[in-house]
Amino acid sequence: MPLIDARTARSRSYDCIVSGAGPAGLSVALPLAEAGHRVLIVEAGSHEPSPGPDAEYETPQAHAAASITHCRALGGTSWLWGGRTIPLMPHDLLASGWPMDYADLARHYQSAAIFLGASPPEQPFFDPQTTEPFDLNSQEVLANTGSLLQWHRARMEAPYGPDVLLNATATGIILGKSPRGGTHCEGLRVCAQGIPETLELRAPKTVLAQGGIETLRLLLADKVRWPEELGHLQALGRYYAGHLTGSVASIVFRREDEVDAFGWRPLAQRGSVRRIFRSTAAAMAEGVNMFFWAQNWPIADAEHGSGLLSAKFLAKRAFRRPEQNTDPHGPGVAAPQRTSAASAHLHNVLSDGPTVLRGLPGVIRARFSQRRQALDHLVPNGARRYRLAYHAEQESRTENRIELAGPVEPGRLPKIRIALDFSQPDIDRVVHGHKMLAQSLSRSSIAELQYDAPIGARRAAIRALAQDGYHQTGVARMGADPKDSVVGPDCEVHGIADLFIAGAAVFRSSAGVQPTHSIVALSMRIAEHIAAGTDAASQRSSSAS
Fold it and tell me: Does the 6-83+147-241+397-422+470-544 domain belong in CATH 3.40.1010.10?
């Protein structure tokens, strides 16, 4: 990984410039470099994570602050990532009009899981043949703790590894005209630390992989700077979508042996795996796309019935240590917060003795796990009762958007305003998803779903918990028509040859699962496409000479 300064970067010749050194950027840059292409990574941050620029929010309660949703650093948001690895499935693409074949994405899933510090589960992530609204045997993988550099430092430092320019912010793209009159991207304009002037870094191919918000900050500014060349991108910044997360119900398992499968278990190589409930094409036909998982109750609430959790709570209170919910669930997932009397916890300790003895080894293993810090182990309890958390797709709507909030100046990135909120249909789909899962569970005899509150209070709780900003999907979404999309199926910007966007910004829909696994798979596909096109061009040039 040659770390170079800005003047060195300007003096060298590259085949591809990648802006952003997170999961998307590295999974484009490394395969290209290993295929023999000269690659430069431009990263706004340094070796340690720091927050990027913030934004204005029309609905602050619906969008987490940028300081906690993404960061600038070598490794990007992998420094903040919770490790949850779960891919898109065929119905995610088909129902939303993604202009690509599912197989073209899925063939990169295994490599993407390994890239992220995980490994594929022993059985498939999902059973596409199930006719139920929910696949009750779906799998989720948790990657090992660490930024991507932990897994890829040797690749980065190899002689053929990409050049890396740190503390350099891309402030714009460089556009030119081909001999036939078409517009194409020639590189990036960059503001680098210690260099007073804006640098122009040129390459035949450019990939923007800075995360949805920062990619849009750059492109919206350039749409003002290049109105003739970029004015046709009407969908740029629109269709912003994330996910609804939370917990408004509990799950009671019928048998103790069912519980173990829904807690994290180590995989043979890297990572851990657990069983989840994931919606199918049958549920998608009714607008539901989401998944559920079991997690421990907050230890302060003695309703969990667990002697282990109550003992942990009493010990924490005795030593005045705050409770921490360590489940890597992402934003929004919170159970009802209630602190029970010490007598109720003492009752759990005394009455749940056999379960305490059975569950203690697993708790100890989770506490000292080298795979994932603070691994949330499902603690056994006599009632076999756990919180049921959900993660649901948000509908893509044009009114959810990113837009400019200030003037566009040369060599600088502008202020932006984010309008993201959750609609009543979003809430209704989460309610309906719970109902469909309850029916599937009833037919399977695995477990029973128990709601916290009547339907009115449940809807209010779902809305109160709805917040995202982590999963920045849709703002440069893919499609065949430039009127309602920004990139084509190969993630190349409509009407701008040689400019690609990598990341969740190009997702046609947010889908029902976390995007990171599929981001990396899609980025690997971009690298493959760029390499194939470059090789073909070289062959044509050689033949002509």
Answer: no
